[in-house]
Amino acid sequence: MTRTWAGRIGFYTLIAVLLAFFTIPLLWLAAAPFTSDPTYEVRMPDFTFENFQTIIEHPYALGSLVNSLILAIGTALLVVVLSALAAYALSRVRIPGRDALLYALLLLSSIITGTAAMVPLFQLAIELGLIDSHTGLILILTGGLLPAAIFMIKDFMDATPKSYEESARVFGASPLQIVRHVVTPVVRPGLATIAVWTIANVWGNFLMPFLLLSDVEKQPAAVIMYTLYTEGGQANLRVLSTFGLLYSVPVVLMYLFVSKKYGFRFHGGIKR
Amino acid sequence: MAAIELRGLTKVYPGGVKALDSLDLTVPDGEFFALLGPSGCGKTTLLRTIAGLETATGGAVVIGGRDVTGVQPGGRDIAMVFQDYALFPHMDVSDNIAYPLRIKKVPKAARHAKAAEVGARLGLEQLMDRRPGQLSGGQQQRVALARVMATQAQAFLFDEPLSNLDARLRLEARTFLKKLQRELGVTTVFVTHDQAEALAMADRMAVMEAGHIRQIGTPAEVFQRPANTFVAAFIGSTPMNLLDAVVRGDTLEVAGCKLPVPASAEGLLTEGEKLVYGVRPEYMTYSAQPVDGSLTGGVVILENLGASHLVTLDVAGVLVQAVVPEGHEPALGEQGYAVPRGDRALVYRDGELVTA
Amino acid sequence: MAQVTSPPKPAEVVSPAPARRYSSDAAGLGRLRAGAFVAPALALIAVFLVFPALWVIYLGLTNYRLTGAAAAEPQFVGLDNFVKAVTDPEFWDSTWLTFQFVLGSAVIGQVVLGFTLAWMLKDRRGTLKSVVEGLVILAWILPSAVVSFLWVALLDRDAGTLNALLGIPGFAWLLDHPMLSIIIFNTWRGTAFSMMLYGAALGNVPPSHLESARLAGASGWQQLRDVVFPHIRGHILTNLLLISLWTFNDFSPFLLTAGGPDGKSEVLAVHVYKVALQNGDLGYGAAISTVILLINLVVAVFYLRLLRSKK
Questions:
Q1: Residue numbers in C near B206 (CB within 8 A)
Q2: Chain C residue with minimal CA distance to B58?
Q3: Which stretches of chain B drop beneath a pLDDT of 50?
Q4: Which of C31, C135, C289 sits opposite A95 (nearest CB)?
Q5: Which domain holds residue B331?
Q6: Which residue, A151, A85, A28, B209, is CA-closest to C2?
Q7: Quick check: is A56 in a domain?
Q8: Same domain, yes or no, for A195 and A156?
Q9: Domain that holds residue A25
C-alpha cells in the first residue's frame, strides 16, 4: 500500500515538473499579446486587442506572413506534384538502378543539410540570379525536401494494392487515366500528409530565407521575427508577442487538423 | 462470347523462374473453366497472362479467334474479378459498376442506367450509393461481378473468386456464381486452389503443377480417373489410396493381399512389374467378414465424416482408407476387409495412369 | 505432357498478329513514361542538392571570398583551408562546443526525457496524456524564430520569468551560461520526436512479455532492463542517430545566442555562417562545411546500415 502511494506521489511530482518545464516558456506567448504594455515577465493579461492593431499598421508584419504563405504553398505544390510522380514511377515500374537511386536519395537527403550546403547554395543563388527571388527560394527548398517526400509518398504507394490499377487497366483505361481516376484519389491522404509536412517545414525555415532574401519586402515571417528582436535597440514587445502569436497559430491549426483527420501517425525520420 | 485458346504459352520471369512451360489449352465458347492447383503452380500467372497483365515469353493467347498476345489488357475484350475485388474505395457502388463504361466514353446518364440495371439483377439496388468500405464481403463480390457484367466482355476471368468470403458464405456464393455463369453464357476461366470448389463449379478444369498442366477434363473425369498420381493425390476431400503393387499373374499383390487387375488396365501389364495401385476410399466396399480380393487389416482409426465414416485399416503396415456408410461403422481394433470396386480402381506406371 | 481426358471443340481459324512486347507494370506506364515521371524531381534534386554538395568540396579547395580580389578570381589552394582549420583553435573550440551540444541536448536531454515521458504515459489514456503530449509537441512544431524569442524572454536577466520563479533576479543565463542555455533550450525543443518514437516502440512490446515478467515478480526496473530494452534496442539506436544528425546540423542556437558571447556558444553550424557569410571567407567556410558533410555521411551510412539490417 505505502509503495503504491509513494509511487503515485513520485509519478505526479515528476509529471508536474515536466509539465512546468514544457509549459512555462510558452506562457509568455499566450499572455503578452493580450497585455497592454507587455514586459518579458509573464503577467495576467488585461485582454486588450490593441496590439493586433499595431501589427496591422506595421510596415512588414502582415506582408511577411503573406510571403511565408507564398513560399509554403509554392513549395508544397511543387513538392507534392513532383514527389508523387516520381514515387509512383519508382513504386510501380522496375526502372534499372532503382534501388541504388533510392538509397542514394535517402543518403543525400540526410547528409546535405542547410548547414552543410549554405555556402554553395548562397553562391549558386548569386550565380543564377536567384537572390531576393521567391521562385529561386522555392526551387532551392523543393530540392532539399524532395528526397524525403519521395520516400514518404512511395511508402503510401507501395502500400496500395496493385489490383486497383490492374483492374482499371483490364477495363481499358490508359496509364494517365489510371493515374487520374484511381491512383490519385487512393493516395490522397498521402498527398495531404506531404503537403502539410512541406508547409510546416517551409513555414518554420529560418536559415534559407535569412541567407537568400535581403529585401525586407520579400522576407518571410521567420526572418522578420528575428529582425524584430535583434535589431534596433529596445525590442517592441507588443509587436513581437502579437506577431509571434499570429505566426504560430497556422502551425498549431494545421497540427490539430492533421491529428484529427488522420490521427498523428508516426513517420520515422520526419522533422522540421 | 468467344473461345480462349493458348498455344505453347510460356512465361519465364526475370531471374529464370519458369512459371508457365509451353501450355496448350482450349476453353470453348461459353464454358465455365477452372484452373486448379496448389499455390505456386502457376495458375494465377496463367490467368494474368490470359488477361495480359503478364506478358508471355513465348507462345500465343487467342481470344475469339484473334491473336491477342501482343495486345494490351484493355484491348483484349475481357473482364476480370480480382481476388481482393479491387473495388475503387473512393467511388460508390454505382460509379464502380459504371467505371468500365466511363472508360468507353459512354455518357454519364446511360452508364448509370446500365449500372442500375446490372446492380438490380444482382440484388444491389439498395446499395448503389454506398462505398465499398461499407459493404460486406459477399456484397463486395457481387459489386465486382456487376462491374464485369457491365463491360459485356467476350470472356470473364476470376482470380480466386471465393477465397475472400467466410466458409458459410462460400457455399452460397458457389451456387450463385455457377447459376449466374450459366445464365450469362460467357466463357469464364477461374482460378482456385480448392479442389472441392473446382469440382463443384466447373464444366471442365485443368489441374496444374509447377507450370505444367497435369490433366484437363470434366470434374467427373478428373475425380474418377486422375491421369497421374499428382492429380490423384490432389483431388478429393479424402486422398486416394495409392499403394505399391507388383504384378503376379492375373492378380496384383498389394500389401500382401491379392487383388484382381482393374478393368482399365486389363491386358496392359507385364509379369513382375512394379506399379502403384490407386483407389478412392469412396470406391471401397467395407465388410466385417472375410471376402476374396480384399485389403485386410485391423481398424486403427475411425473418423466421422457426417453421413459416413472414414475407416483406416493397417494392412501389413500400409495404411488403407475406406468410406463406410452410416450405421455400418466397425469398432476400433476389429479385423476389416475392404474390397476396391474393379471399375473404379486404377493402376499407375511411373506416376502416369495405365489405360488403353 | 498434359493428359486431356475430354477434348474441346476444334479450334477456329486465327488471324495471326505480330507478337509485340508492351510494358507489364500495374498501370502499363512503361519505362519511358516512368522516366519522364521521375525526371523533374531528379533534376531539381541534382541542381539544388547534389550539385551544391559537390561544389562545396571544390570551394573548400579555393581561397574564394565574398568580396575583393579573390572573389573575382579565386585561386586553387589545395588543402590549405583544411590545414588552417586543423591548426585553428577556434575550429577546435567550435567542434568541442558542438560535441557538448549534441551530447547534452540530444543524446542525454532528448533521449532521457523522451523515454521518460513515453514510459510514464504508456498505459494512460485521457486528458493528462493529451495535455502533456500536446505541450511537448507544441514545443516541437512552433517556428524556431518564435520559440527562440520565447526563450530569450524566459531567460532575460532582469524581467525574465525563470529568474522571477527561481528568485535570482539579475542572473544572466545567456551571457554567463550560453552553452547550458542552448542545451536546455534544444532539449525542450526536440523531446517530442523521441517521445513519439519511444511511444510507438513501447506500443510494440508485447503485453504478454511484460505480464509474464510481472508474474515472475520483476520490479519496474527489472522489467525495463529484461523486457523493454531488448525489444526497443533498434528504436533507441535509430533515435540516437537521427537526433544526433539533426542536432549536429541545427542552426537555431544562432537565433538564441548568435554564437556569443565571444564565441562561447558558437557550434559548427553557426561557425560556418560566421566565417563564410559574415567574414566573407567562403573558401574556408566551404572547407568546414566539407568536414560537416563527412561527419554527416558517417552517421547517415551507419543509420542506413541499421535500417537495412532490420529488414
A1: 2
A2: C19
A3: none
A4: C31
A5: 241-353
A6: B209
A7: no
A8: yes
A9: 2-48
Sign of CA dihedral A203, A207, A211, A214: positive
Q: How far apart, in whole angstroms, are the C-alpha atoms of residue B129 and residue B123? A: 14
Residue C228: count other Cβ atoms within 10 Å of its Cβ.
20
pLDDT score, position C4 = 64
Which domain-ending residue is among B206, B234, B262? B234
The verdict on B134 and B266 lying in the same domain is no
Tell whether B89 is within 8 A of chain A (Cβ): yes
The whole-number pLDDT of residue A272 equals 31
Q: Assess whether A174 and A221 both reside in one domain.
A: yes
Same domain, A224 and A147: yes
DSSP tag of C62: B
- Give yes or no for residue C69 having a pLDDT over 80: no
Helix (H) or strand (E) holding A54: helix A50-57
Q: What mean pLDDT do residues A166-193 have?
A: 89
pLDDT at C6: 60
Specify if A268 maps to a domain.
no
**Measured distance CA(C215)–CA(C50) in Å, rounded:** 55
Q: Do A119 and C252 touch (CB under 8 A)?
A: no
CB C143 to CB A229 under 8 A? no
Of B54, B62, B204, the CB nearest to C24: B54
Q: Which chain B residues are Cβ-neighbours of A185 within 8 angstroms? A: 88, 90
Asked if residue B250 and residue B230 are part of one domain, the reply reads: no
Selected residue of C12, C21, C23, C31 to mutate for chain B interface (largest B Cβ count, 10 A): C12
Q: Encode pLDDT of A1-41 as tens digits.
A: 566 788 888 888 999 999 999 998 888 888 888 887 777 77
SS3 C235: helix
Give me the domains of chain C, ranges plus CATH numbers: 88-273+293-310 (1.10.3720.10)
The tally of domains found in chain B comes to 2
Closest partner residue to B204 (CB to CB) among C6, C18, C19 is C6
Average pLDDT over residues C33-62: 89
Same domain, B273 and B307: yes
pLDDT, position C304: 79
Give me the pLDDT at residue B158, please. Answer: 93
Burial classification of residue A265, based on how many CB atoms lie within 10 Å of its CB (0-12 exposed, 13-18 middle, 19 or more buried): exposed
Domain CATH for B160: 3.40.50.300
Average the pLDDT over A194-210 and give the result.
90
Q: Is pLDDT above 50 for C10?
A: no
Distance CA C24, CA B30 (A): 28
Res C8 pLDDT > 60: no
**Residues B212, C8: C-beta atoms closer than 8 Å:** no
Answer whether A222's CB lies under 8 Å from A205's CB.
yes
Q: In the block, which residue shows the cell 472414414?
A: B310
Over residues C244-285, the pLDDT tens digits come to 988 998 898 898 888 878 888 899 999 999 988 888 888 888
Rounded CA-CA distance C308/C301 in Å is 10
Nearest chain B CA: its distance from A174 CA (Å): 8
Same domain as A119, residue A29: no
Do both B111 and B87 map to the same domain? Answer: yes
On the CB side of B178, how many CA atoms lie within 13 Å of its CA?
14
A-contacting residues in C 34-63 (Cβ below 8 Å)? 34-35, 37-38, 40-42, 44-45, 47-53, 55-56, 59
Contact B82 A171 (CB under 8 A): no
Q: Are both A80 and A214 inside the same structural domain?
A: yes
Do A41 and A173 reside in the same domain of the chain? no
B93 in contact with A at a CB cutoff of 8 Å? no
Number of domains forming the structure of chain A: 2
Residue C243 CA to its chain's centroid (Å): 5
Contact assignment for B67 to C15 by CB distance below 8 Å = yes
Identify whether residues B135 and B92 lie together within a single domain.
Answer: yes
Interface residue A173 vs chain B (CB under 8 A): yes
Give the one of C136, C147, C249 whose C-beta lies nearest to A113's C-beta.
C249
| Complex confidence, ipTM | 0.85
Q: What is the pLDDT of residue C14?
A: 45
| Closest chain C residue to the Cα of B53, Cα to Cα | C24
The per-residue pLDDT for A266 is 46
Q: Is residue A82 part of a domain?
A: yes
Pair B225, B322 in one domain: no
With CA atoms as reference, the chain C residue closest to B25 would be C8
- CB spacing of A85 vs C300 below 8 angstroms: no
